[in-house]
């Protein structure tokens, strides 16, 4: 026998399911090529407006273009499949370490200040700085918002990049970024290549300024469990914070090794 409350509960569940399906049906639909991008932008802009994104950011979103170069780069990330030795050679680890040791000395006061505040020593920060942008020399020249909007539209990883797009739009609304901000292929910006969600959460100023980018990176690492004085090699307590920075195993190990060499350990 089905009791009255069971009928009511079942009816409520059906209403919720139908509403959910309706919301999914009305959500901006992903695509695998440029053909649907303009229609997607129209749909997404309506959703973004309903969630409180302002007119300035919506206007910037509507000016974005489908970034074919970003899609090609997203499909071709072959270096993360290399062995650790191959990866480090390809990324120029010896050069990063040599330059990093020099920067550690010439900017000793900056790194001492960062370590005092966040507990992160110079080595891993400098290794990330060198790996991500060649110490600020290669910050990318793609339209940041177009790159992220394209990846949010693309069916490969729309959930991850939709979150990034909302963060980018909030930053545009705040005036921190603009529709003309330039970045790398996946929308990373600044000297240590922050994604928009991380700019919102951990950014400490203009990330095109090295001191701000390095402080923001240390802030990220501390927020992900970095403990002052603990080791950061694989198996040591702080390695997990490096893992949080980048998901690729060869990248994580390369940062740990270069950081140790820069720190003279």
Automatic annotation (TrEMBL):
Q: Name one GO molecular function term.
A: peptidoglycan lytic transglycosylase activity
Q: Which Pfam families match?
A: SLT_2
Which segments does the entry list as coiled coil? none
Keyword Signal assigned? yes
Q: Where is the Transglycosylase SLT domain?
A: 37-232
Q: What is the protein's name according to its record?
A: Lytic murein transglycosylase
Q: Which residues form the signal peptide?
A: 1-27
Any one Gene Ontology BP term: peptidoglycan catabolic process
PANTHER family, alphabetized = LYTIC MUREIN TRANSGLYCOSYLASE, MEMBRANE-BOUND LYTIC MUREIN TRANSGLYCOSYLASE B
- Cite the entry's keywords alphabetically: Signal
């Amino acid at each position: 026998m089905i009791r009255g409350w069971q009928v009511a509960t079942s009816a409520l569940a059906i209403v919720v399911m139908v509403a959910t399906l309706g919301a999914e049906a009305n959500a901006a639909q992903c695509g695998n090529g440029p053909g649907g991008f303009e229609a997607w932008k129209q749909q997404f802009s309506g959703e973004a407006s309903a969630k409180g994104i302002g007119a300035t950011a919506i206007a910037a979103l509507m000016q974005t273009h489908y970034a074919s170069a970003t899609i090609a780069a997203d499909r071709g990330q072959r270096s993360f499949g290399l062995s650790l030795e191959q990866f480090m050679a390809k990324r120029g680890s010896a050069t990063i370490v040599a330059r990093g040791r020099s920067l550690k000395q010439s900017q000793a006061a900056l790194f001492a200040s960062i370590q005092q505040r966040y507990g992160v020593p110079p080595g891993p920060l400098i290794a990330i700085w060198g790996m991500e942008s060649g110490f600020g020399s290669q910050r990318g020249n793609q339209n940041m918002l177009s790159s992220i909007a394209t990846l949010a539209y693309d069916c490969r990883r729309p959930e991850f990049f939709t979150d990034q797009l909302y963060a980018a739009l909030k930053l545009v609304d705040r005036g921190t970024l603009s529709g003309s901000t330039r970045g790398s292929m996946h929308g990373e910006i600044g000297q240590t290549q922050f994604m928009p969600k991380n700019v919102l959460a951990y950014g400490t100023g203009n990330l095109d300024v090295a001191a701000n980018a390095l402080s923001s990176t240390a802030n990220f690492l501390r927020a992900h469990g970095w403990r002052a004085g603990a080791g950061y090699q694989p198996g040591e307590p702080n390695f997990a914070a490096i893992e949080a920075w980048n998901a690729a195993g060869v990248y994580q190990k390369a940062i740990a090794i270069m950081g140790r060499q820069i720190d003279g350990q």
